[in-house]
Amino acid sequence: MFKRFSKKKEDTSESDAKKKANLIKIDKPIDIIPSSITIPDEKKLDEEQIKKYNIILKYFQNPDLRIPNSEKQIKENISNTDENSAPLTEIEKAWITRECICRYLRATKWVVDDCKDRIAGSIAWRREFGISHFGEENGDSITPDSVAIENESGKNVIMGYENDARPILYLKPGRQNTKTSHRQVQHLVFMLERVIDFMPPGQDSLALLIDFKEYPDVPKVQGNSKIPPIGVGKEVLHILQTHYPERLGKALLTNIPWLAWTFLKLIHPFIDPLTREKLVFDEPFSKYVPLDQLDTLYGGDLDFTYKHDVYWPSLNDLAKQKRVHYLERFQKFGGVIGLSELDLRGDHDELMFPVDA
Questions:
Q1: What 8-state DSSP symbol labels residue 159?
Q2: Least confident of 175-189, 192-206, 329-343
């Protein structure tokens, strides 16, 4: 179960003048990792894992394969028809990368049939949820405009990279500005997709920095809460664990009020053990994030001010550029299932991980 830790007293010996001199003013996302951060080496697959990987790869390479258009069809084992299913699109093929298959295999403990169902289920969910086209420019129904109101208060911010080059998504429930609705879930998924866009070559997980602090500059809205209803919490947890497996590298939580601890205890039974291991409570963020990548609110050097009319278009323009780069390289390297995200996100000329046709 979760344990609450008392915060250690921070060292205040450094002069305010020196701190001020180190500040980096910023109002837009950081899109390049600094040279001081090193991406950890990938863990190699053993012979048995390679064999299972190849089974999954060949299954989704089948040109006759049809995927249901809703997650419910897979859960209830409803037979595919021309009306309720479709072949993989080119963009869905770009989504089924070498690393994607490995993430789902690890999440299903290398059980091949479970992995097939989980990947198919996520494709079906993405179609139904409105994010299967890889961005608004390709046809996604969840767009920057459709969720923009949710981020006007700066409650979710993508900014900086932690020690292992994971892009950071700040979640600030205390800046909640809208009533509880399905659009809030759409907004969170939209931000998850954007933080994935910001992943550098060789890193396929993200870091969450969750701050429950109250912000008096955000007006209270009747029907809103910084602690979501248990039903919404379970839905978000299902989405994260089922459709973004192995994407969470670290989740740091701070300023946790009594009510949030109660909520965490309520959803504790629904959190899988692997996710629990990645949760860190009330420890200094600077232990996990370089100071030049961390907001001053948490002891870092980034003097960040959220200006919606500046940050929001910049975030979406940068993310679009990264998606265009990814898809151009997908076509360059053959447009096939199983290409590596290292090749798709990189800028080298030669294919590092050829795909076995």
A1: E
A2: 175-189
